[in-house]
């Protein structure tokens, strides 16, 4: 599985893979994830801008709180905030050298994400039953697009967490620091996904 | 705790488990060395040549694929030029397009639109960007900064393997019902939303290409920031590295809005939403049934927010290549290196706030137009700084007129023409007349074709010995250069005249049916088309030169006596590694940098040039001689 091990050449060891480079203060993956998140900001930023443009240009625009299920979304917001906390706990347990507790917190994070997704599925189902589809009007068009894309990000996160809970955890035995770093990096991504929801919630549901 | 058993190895006592570990390590090293003797290592073939994680091989993969796409895009253009030069004439080559796109050898109007859309898309997204960034960037940046590889080798591989399927999807769209995309490379709605299925494929293809660029750009930035060699401060970077650095930021931050736009357009086409569809559209006498209320200008904003930075993605790596070749060919440091670097960074920032100069005619209002015309005038300043510095770098140099140098020198005036003709486009008052005419086509082709593509050719001639250990044939290189240079100007210069006379772009007959355009179309179009065919012919010596030498090199025939550093360069990709580089891994010993990138003819030094990694000036080396650290040479020879 590990390409580096099989290539096995000393010169192929990439520097600063695990330890921070002294003059930049970060290790490679951490810088990488920050850059990736910058691009994600541009992605969601473009979609939010589109929403603003469409809404200001529209003659009528439905109120989110009249069309959507606010209590459910509030609950989902809460769930995601909890998951942001558990992922930090996972990381800090790993820093303390406690894989077992770390794994428990990772599982808790996955659980939160799944609860979120199930709720979301109920919400979608409800909207479809009321004959509200993306093509109904531009409010639902942007609602489904934004929440759908956000949902895909959640699913992506769940897959990565599952990987690190299962096969990826083998790295702990070989290189615990690297494993801890990976959880930190996924954690950063996860915070971002939560943050997007924190913006989505008021913009779509409350305004 | 159980006692650990000790065993005797030679004259030494070791713990059994440690001895076992050492033995395994020894076996692995021996295995490695055995692999090394066969010119490779023990990775299976598929991991070495298909799913390689080595930046050099990935660069070569990108390069080959991108060159093929460039050739394809060029051939599409030849078909269009045949139709433009002699509208309505039957050509038997058109038959390759299949029954639905021509009748009796005469290109059909819808097919002309398909060719146009795909020519632009292929050239920009599948040809130049992958060649400039994927190939040159991948191959050279880690070598020039003294890094063992890219920071994330696996992501690098995935990036290529997002690009290749993206390209295949674009190609496959030619076989979609109704043909491929036909709404131009800009895909403006509402036409693109009601276009045939090919447009959906185009959008899906774009999502792959965008993903590929995103992965690539993260990798580049991390590599440059984290893996640069000891002593290599930012102001010691070769200019090419700066160019790639800024380019990566542009790709990273400008592409996601296009991704958003592509998602929205996909929703419009697949899920029936109306993001870009205004109310009350009537198509072929029938009112559309979608909800309406959307805004076609939203697409234009999102698209140009990407596509203006994108044009700097097209030009910056080219400037980087030209700067490297010019410093080397004039045997002087670049004039104004520092201002070039700051100009590049400034240009990167500014390129995010000029996009609406493509939209002066959309009625966005004079205030907004005034803003964007101001920023556009401002952004031309850094371009002028870079170009002037490169021109001034020639002053007083003892120029070596090699083939790469010819291409680099030609780049300067060609980019100059392209850039200067951009100014009237950036001023709203003049753009009202010039927008969507052949003048615009002339403008951007001058920047991209005799500009960027010439720089790419120069780069190929210049770095070919690095990748293969062989030099491309100089004589044929000159033939390639001179015919290309004459023909390419013959194609694009008349476009300015056409545009000023009011000939619109995207006309199926090149203006032959329009009273105001008839005359100039008849005067210029056949000539331009002949030049296009001449340009095609000029590529033949290049293609043979390139393939012949690439195949010879692959068979293990190197140019004897070429040495590691045939151009006597100072940057590390030549000076600190062998040419061609080792099969895997870049440096025997990671280099340390002691000086700036272009120490040619330093006053007071005996050596004509001093490589970046040399602590003290070396004794003048024999021409073309190797300047590797002695340890590296020793290891290479045994
Ligand atoms: C140096 C200063 C430059 C200025 C002031 C400038 C200005 C402009 C303006 C205002 C337009 C829009 C014209 C119209 O549609 O009416 C335009 C089009 C274009 N420019 Fe430039 N440009 C510059 C440099 C470049 C460079 C360096 C490149 C590429 C490498 C480039 C590539 C393009 C392309 C591809 C288009 C046409 C897009 C289309 O409509 O299909 N330009 N330029
Ligand atoms: Cu522009």
Greatest interface (CB-CB under 8 A), with counts per chain: A-B, 47 and 53 residues
Give the CATH architecture of chain A.
Up-down Bundle
Task: Give the terminus-to-terminus CA distance of chain A.
Answer: 49 Å
What's the CATH H-level superfamily name of chain A?
Answer: Cytochrome c oxidase, subunit III, four-helix bundle
CATH hierarchy class name of chain A: Mainly Alpha
Structure write-up:
The complex is a heterodimer of chains A (207) and B (638). Chain A has eight helices and no strands. Chain A has helices at 3-7, 28-57, 64-67, 70-95, 99-129, 138-165, 171-174, 176-206. The longest helix of chain A is centred in the middle third of the chain and has 31 residues, at 99-129. The model of chain A is unreliable at 1-11 (pLDDT under 50). Among the domains of chain B are: 1-35 and 560-638, no CATH class; 401-559, no CATH class. Chain B contains 18 helices and six strands. In chain B, strands 1-2 form a two-stranded antiparallel ribbon. In chain B, strands 3-4 form a two-stranded antiparallel sheet. In chain B, strand 5 (282-283) and strand 6 form a beta hairpin. In chain B, helix 9 packs across helix 14 and helix 12 packs parallel to helix 15. Chain B starts with 5 loop residues before the first strand and ends with a helix. The interface between A and B is large, with 47 and 53 residues. The structure holds protoporphyrin IX containing FE and copper (II) ion. Protoporphyrin IX containing FE binds next to helix 9, helix 11, helix 12, helix 13 and helix 14 of chain B.
């Amino acid at each position: 599985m590990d390409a580096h091990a099989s290539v096995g050449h000393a010169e192929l060891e990439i520097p600063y893979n695990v330890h921070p480079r002294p003059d930049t203060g970060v290790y490679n993956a951490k810088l990488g994830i920050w850059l990736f998140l910058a691009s994600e900001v541009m992605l969601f930023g473009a979609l939010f801008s589109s929403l603003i443009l469409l809404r200001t240009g529209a003659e009528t625009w439905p109120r989110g709180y009249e069309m959507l299920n606010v209590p459910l979304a509030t609950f989902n917001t809460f769930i995601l905030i909890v998951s942001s906390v558990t992922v930090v706990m996972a990381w800090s347990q790993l820093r303390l050298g406690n894989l077992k507790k770390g794994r428990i917190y990772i599982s808790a994070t996955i659980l939160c994400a799944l609860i979120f997704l199930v709720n979301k599925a109920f919400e979608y189902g409800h909207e479809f039953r009321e004959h509200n589809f993306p093509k109904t009007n531009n409010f639902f068009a942007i609602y489904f697009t934004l929440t759908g894309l956000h949902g895909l990000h959640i699913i992506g996160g769940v897959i990565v967490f599952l990987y690190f809970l299962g096969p990826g955890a083998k790295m702990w035995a070989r290189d615990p620091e690297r494993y801890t770093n990976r959880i930190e990096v996924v954690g950063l991504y996860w915070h971002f996904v939560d943050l997007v929801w924190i913006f989505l919630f008021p913009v779509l549901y409350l305004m | 705790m159980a006692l650990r058993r000790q065993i005797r190895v030679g004259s030494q006592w070791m713990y059994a488990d440690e001895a076992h570990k050492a033995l395994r390590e020894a076996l692995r090293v021996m295995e490695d060395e055995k692999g090394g003797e066969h010119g490779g290592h023990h990775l299976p073939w598929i991991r070495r040549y298909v799913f390689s994680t080595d930046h050099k091989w990935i660069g070569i993969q990108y390069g080959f694929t991108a060159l093929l796409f460039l050739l394809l895009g060029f051939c599409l253009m030849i078909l269009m030029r045949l139709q433009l030069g002699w509208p309505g004439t039957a050509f038997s080559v058109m038959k390759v397009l299949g029954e639905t796109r021509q009748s009796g050898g005469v290109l059909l109007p819808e097919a002309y639109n398909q060719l146009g859309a795909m020519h632009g898309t292929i050239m920009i997204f599948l040809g130049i960007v992958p060649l400039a960034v994927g190939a040159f960037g991948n191959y050279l940046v880690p070598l020039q900064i003294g890094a063992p590889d890219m920071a994330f080798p696996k992501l690098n591989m995935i990036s290529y393997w997002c690009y290749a399927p993206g390209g295949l999807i674009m190609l496959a769209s030619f076989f979609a019902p109704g043909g491929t995309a036909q709404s131009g490379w800009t895909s403006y709605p509402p036409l693109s939303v009601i276009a045939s299925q090919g447009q959906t494929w185009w959008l899906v293809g774009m999502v792959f290409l965008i993903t590929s660029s995103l992965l690539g750009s993260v990798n580049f930035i991390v590599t440059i920031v984290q893996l640069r060699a000891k002593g290599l401060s930012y102001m010691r970077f070769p200019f090419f590295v700066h160019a790639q650095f800024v380019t990566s930021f542009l790709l990273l931050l400008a592409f996601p809005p296009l991704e958003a736009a592509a998602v929205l357009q996909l929703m419009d086409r697949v899920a029936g939403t109306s993001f870009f569809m205004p109310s009350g559209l009537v198509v072929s006498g029938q009112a559309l049934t979608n909800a309406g209320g959307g805004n076609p200008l939203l697409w234009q904003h999102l698209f140009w927010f990407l596509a203006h930075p994108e044009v700097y993605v097209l030009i910056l790596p080219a400037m980087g290549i030209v700067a490297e070749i010019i410093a080397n060919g004039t045997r002087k440091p670049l004039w104004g290196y520092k201002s070039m670097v700051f100009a590049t960074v400034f240009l990167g920032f500014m390129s995010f706030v000029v996009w609406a100069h493509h939209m002066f005619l959309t009625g966005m209002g004079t205030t907004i137009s005034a803003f964007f015309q101001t920023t556009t005038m401002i952004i031309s300043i850094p371009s002028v700084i870079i170009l002037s510095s490169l021109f001034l770098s020639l002053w007083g140099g003892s120029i070596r007129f090699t083939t790469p140098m010819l291409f680099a020198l030609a780049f300067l005036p060609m980019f100059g023409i392209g850039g200067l003709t951009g100014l009237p486009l950036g001023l709203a008052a003049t753009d009202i007349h010039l927008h969507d005419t052949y003048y615009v086509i002339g403008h951007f082709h001058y920047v991209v074709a005799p500009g960027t593509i010439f720089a790419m050719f120069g780069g190929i001639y210049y770095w070919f010995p690095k990748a293969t250990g062989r030099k491309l044939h100089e004589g044929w290189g000159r033939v390639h250069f001179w015919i290309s240079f004459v023909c390419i100007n013959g194609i694009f210069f008349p476009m300015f005249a056409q545009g000023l006379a009011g000939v619109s772009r995207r006309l199926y007959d090149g203006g032959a049916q329009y009273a105001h355009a008839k005359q100039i179309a008849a005067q210029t179009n056949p000539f331009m088309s002949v030049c296009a065919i001449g340009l095609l012919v000029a590529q033949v010596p290049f293609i043979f030169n390139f393939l012949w030498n690439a195949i010879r090199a692959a068979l293990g025939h190197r140019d004897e006596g070429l040495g590691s550093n045939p151009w006597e360069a100072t940057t590390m990709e030549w000076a600190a590694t062998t040419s061609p580089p080792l099969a895997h891994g870049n440096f025997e010993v990671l280099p340390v940098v002691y000086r700036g990138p272009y120490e040619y003819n330093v006053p007071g030094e005996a050596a004509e040039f001093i490589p970046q990694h040399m602590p003290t000036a070396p004794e003048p080396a024999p021409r073309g001689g190797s300047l590797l650290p002695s340890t590296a040479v020793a290891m290479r020879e045994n």
